[in-house]
Design a protein that fits this description.
Elements lengths: L2 H12 L4 H8 L3 H12 L4 H16 L4 H16 L4 H11 L8 H17 L7 H51 L6
Helix pairs in contact: 1-2, 1-3, 2-3
């Protein structure tokens, strides 16, 4: 039997097709389909293959291919390498899709790249950016409070300085007034 037919049988079997459908599409008998699959799976853990086939059948029912599933799994592995739990991943997705508070899809990748750039520019791991930003916000809040206190102190000092200046002016006026003689009318 031609190798291309065997490859097509394996591909269809993994895509979740029935032996009958595979046989019809490849124009061979169902026994030939069984033989090709059996020869191919010899030496492999049958439980794993059956699980993969069941997964493929389920994915097919949901309109997803094994290739799409592999891409999804690959992305999940990337996220796990960042140290995120399933709960955090789900929370991220929910937050991204949360109606009016959602981030436009076209901005998500841009924002993630900005996160990475911040990580690089500040020489911190991406997993520590959240804590870094919180610290910086706290520092800014503290500086704002200190600035307001300093402003209030300066405003009070300015009032004190004006009061002193007014007293000085009064002293000068009182010095000038007694020196002037008022003539009787």
């Amino acid at each position: 039997m031609d190798q291309s037919v065997r490859d097509q049988v394996r591909k269809l079997w993994f895509s979740g097709e029935t032996r009958k459908n595979i046989a019809a599409e490849c124009q061979i008998g169902t026994g030939s389909v069984s033989n090709i699959v059996d020869v191919w799976t010899k030496g492999l853990d049958e439980a794993d293959l059956e699980w993969i086939r069941e997964l493929t059948v389920q994915l097919k029912k949901e309109g997803t291919t094994l290739a799409e599933f592999a891409c999804i799994r690959r992305r999940q592995n990337f996220i796990k390498k960042l140290g995120a739990s399933e709960e955090q991943i789900e929370s991220l997705i929910v937050n991204l899709l949360d109606g009016t508070k959602s981030i436009p899809f076209e901005k998500t990748a841009e924002m993630m790249n900005m996160l990475y750039e911040l990580s690089e520019s500040e020489s911190i791991p991406p997993t520590e950016v959240s804590a870094y930003v919180k610290r910086r916000v706290e520092e800014k809040t503290k500086l704002d409070e200190e600035s307001q206190k300093a402003g209030a102190i300066l405003a009070q000092k300015n009032v004190d300085i004006r009061t002193v200046e007014e007293y000085k002016n009064l002293d000068r006026i009182t010095e000038i007034i007694p020196s002037r003689k008022v003539s009787p009318m």
